[in-house]
Amino acid sequence: MIKLNETHRLKGRATLAENRQAMEKLARRVTDGYEAVHEKKYSRARQLLEPLVPMLHSESKPNVKLLAYTAIAQIGDRQVEPFLETYEELKAQTPEDEREQALVTRVDEMFTVLMESVAEEQDND
Q1: How far apart are CA 103 and CA 72, in angstroms?
Q2: Averaged pLDDT score across all residues of the chain
Q3: Alpha helices (H) in the chain, listed in sequence order
Q4: Which of 5, 28, 30, 73 holds its CA 20 to 30 A away from the CA of 121?
């Protein structure tokens, strides 16, 4: 009986270690994605960040920073439809601090530039 409990306890510890390792890997992926945006490696940033949005953002637990960086990566990579979808989701959120507000403002500016270029293209057609 003691051996069974010890084995169970060891499995629990391994699970905690595995969970911590998985969380560290996830955090590294997020920070690598943010860094890729800063380095203007938008395609790489999209690859890192887009798959994380469903996992790290929800209506009940919004992640404005992740949405903003994902939107920047998408528009930087010229992915207009995904950008518009992410932008719509971002606009439904309320920034919690000045940093988040600054990110939302930056994405707003990118949206404005996109709309101006679309209008300009339509005028030229």
Answers
A1: 9
A2: 91
A3: 2-38, 42-49, 53-56, 64-76, 80-91, 98-124
A4: 73
